[in-house]
């Protein structure tokens, strides 16, 4: 069928509706970029991948001639498409509101989301101890314990200052001695050569000793449990752990938008490979990116040192981009619907992505 000829699509009702391709009567220029396994070059320099195979099937159905041109990153790909340099662009282009303002998109041909890559290398115990010591929860608990100790010391001074020479003298001397005794009692470091003599003071001392023993035991157990859990499970197990670690992302990617919306600090890298190298060498603790691309790259180049967590978050879709107002958008939508419902499409996804596509 020639490029300008009317095509047809079969609806469930059995009625054949005309679909006007409205493609230019010339060779189409299709922009793309390296985004394994959706768009990549084989050993012969030929483009292959999930998105490339999808486009070849679309072109075959609509009898379109085309050639591929490559861009270095998704930002330049979107910009060139918006200027009209490309008739359309296909790779692993996430449909976002910001990009939708610049170009038009087809409906998604693949639905996915963001994933998190973490290192398999063992976590430094001393580093985790330091991280725990400066965490908000630890500092909050330590401040509460110190505050109670000061309060107990003050009350002991009030009860004992007129009846016990160990806590007598001036206010500064008496308070200093009672606070020091409170700290000794809390840590069970008292030598026992001095202590409260009044009944209220001794009652308070007994209560404080019992409470401090229980409190410190629970506090120690909680810290030990947290350190053990981190050693066994790792620093990051879901997106909820990202605020507590060093996060990396590809500059200009959709993952940047998610991290910024969540107000998460992040280190930006030019390419996915650069980010995974930083993760592998311990410069960052987690790397956030499109999960299928992340899984592919980690499996191909960092299979022993990096793993991608199972949880998927911030759902997104990949679509074909085209200049605003392109007349052939409807034809592409229909072709995508038809192709992605075929068994051949499922086999393509399985071939590139395995069982978890």
User: What is the overall pLDDT average?
Assistant: 85
CATH superfamily of the largest domain: Periplasmic binding protein-like II
- Count of all domains: 3
Structural class: alpha/beta
The share of residues in helices is: 40-55%
Using DSSP, what is the number of strands? 15
Cα-to-Cα separation, first versus last residue: 34 Å
Oligomer: single chain
CATH class of the largest domain: Alpha Beta
Concise structural overview:
This protein is of the alpha/beta class and 357 residues long.
What tags apply to this protein structure?
357 residues; membrane; three-stranded parallel beta sheet; transport; 3 domains; 12 helices; ion channel; Helix Hairpins; single chain; receptor; D-Maltodextrin-Binding Protein, domain 2; alpha/beta; glycoprotein
Question: How would you characterize this protein structure?
Answer:
- The protein is of the alpha/beta class and 357 residues long.
- The chain has three domains: 7-109 and 319-356, Periplasmic binding protein-like II (D-Maltodextrin-Binding Protein, domain 2); 119-123 and 236-313, D-Maltodextrin-Binding Protein, domain 2 (3-Layer(aba) Sandwich); 127-233, Helix Hairpins (Orthogonal Bundle).
- It is 46% helix and 17% strand.
- It is built from twelve helices and 15 strands.
- The chain has helices at residues 50-62, 74-83, 97-100, 125-133, 136-160, 171-187, 199-233, 254-261, 272-280, 291-301, 329-339, 343-353; strands at 7-10, 16-19, 28-32, 40-41, 47-48, 66-70, 88-89, 104-105, 110-119, 247-250, 267-269, 286-290, 306-308, 313-318, 321-322.
- Strands 9, 10, 11, 12, 13 and 14 form a six-stranded mixed beta sheet that branches. A three-stranded parallel beta sheet has the order 6-3-7, with helices on one face.
- α1 (50-62) packs across α11, α4 (125-133) crosses α7 (199-233) and α6 (171-187) packs across α7.
- Mean pLDDT is 85; it is low at 1-20.
């Amino acid at each position: 069928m020639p490029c300008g000829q009317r095509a047809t699509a079969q609806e469930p009702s059995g009625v054949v509706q005309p679909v006007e391709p409205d493609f230019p009567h010339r060779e189409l220029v299709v922009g793309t970029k390296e985004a394994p396994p959706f768009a990549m070059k084989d050993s012969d320099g030929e483009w292959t991948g999930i998105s490339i195979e999808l486009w070849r099937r679309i072109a075959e159905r609509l009898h379109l001639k085309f050639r591929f041109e490559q861009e270095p990153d998704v930002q330049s790909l979107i910009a060139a498409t918006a200027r009209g340099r490309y008739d359309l662009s296909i790779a692993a282009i996430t449909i976002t509101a910001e990009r939708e303002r610049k170009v038009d998109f087809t409906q998604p041909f693949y639905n996915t989301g963001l994933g998190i890559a973490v290192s398999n290398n063992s976590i430094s115990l001393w580093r985790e101890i330091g991280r725990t010591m400066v965490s908000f929860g630890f500092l909050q608990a330590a401040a509460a314990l110190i505050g109670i100790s000061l309060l107990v010391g003050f009350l002991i001074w009030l009860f004992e200052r007129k009846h016990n020479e160990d806590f007598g003298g001036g206010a500064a001397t008496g308070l200093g001695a009672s606070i020091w005794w409170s700290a000794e009692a809390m840590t069970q470091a008292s030598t026992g050569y001095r202590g409260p003599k009044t009944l209220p003071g001794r009652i308070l001392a007994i209560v404080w000793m019992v409470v401090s023993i229980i409190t410190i035991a629970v506090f120690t157990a909680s810290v030990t449990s947290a350190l053990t859990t981190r050693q066994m499970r790792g620093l990051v197990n879901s997106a909820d752990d990202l605020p507590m670690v060093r996060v990396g992302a590809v500059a200009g990617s959709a993952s940047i938008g998610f991290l910024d919306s969540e107000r998460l600090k992040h280190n930006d890298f030019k390419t996915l490979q650069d980010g995974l190298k930083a993760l592998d060498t311990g410069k960052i603790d987690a790397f956030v990116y499109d999960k299928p691309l992340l899984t592919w790259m980690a499996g191909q180049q960092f299979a022993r040192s990096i793993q991608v967590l199972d949880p998927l978050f911030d759902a997104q879709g990949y679509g074909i981009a085209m200049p605003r107002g392109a007349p052939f958008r409807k034809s592409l939508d229909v072709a995508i619907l038809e192709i992605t419902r075929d068994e051949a499409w499922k086999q393509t996804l399985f071939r590139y992505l395995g069982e978890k596509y």
